[in-house]
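Input sequence (216 aa), recorded before submission:
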Amino acid sequence: MTNMFFIQKLKRGIPQRIITFGTSLTAGGAWVGLLREQLEKLFPGMTELINSGMGGKWSQWAVENISEKVLSLKPDVLFIEFAMNDAFLEYRTGIKAARLNLEYIIERTAADFPECEFILMTMNPPLDIHLERRPDVDKYFQLYREVAETRGLTLIDHHLRWKQLLDTDKKHFLELVPDGIHPSPDGSREITFDNINRLIEKAMTESKTYKSISQE
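Predicted structure, token format:
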């Protein structure tokens, strides 16, 4: 599913508080600021975007800090990406544990905020030493796809487009991800934000109603 139902709420005049929750790819990702600017442009004064990402963190940290980083902020929309660091060998977070943590984040948030919309994201592939430290990262991205499909949640599969670029134009990929793991501001704009914005533009022309987890 690739819908952004919160856009429909904004079109109906319902303000939205959006939380981004993830690794350094969120904490320092230029896409967050670009998304904030785009939403303010489209819906002046109707959105609040809070970046709750944290560099070097993974889903176990997310579970332990969900009250402060998410629940206390009363989200209407929650973007989630922790697969990159769940795959980090030193964190010893297996696929099963990563899935349980992701599902806990969703269910715990939905328990307090049943109308909250969840948007899961895969991210760019890591290279070199970063890939060596995350040899099974593709499996962690896949579990995000599976959880999104099973629960009927929106998935923004950035990995597909980043991987296509890596396979067809590695030189340009390295220009956009110069350290092998963190997209530059240009990279964030060209791919990560662009993927999100395409869905926003699509949602602007649609009229659908979001079915919350509590209604399932």
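Checked by second reader. The chain has one domain: 5-206.
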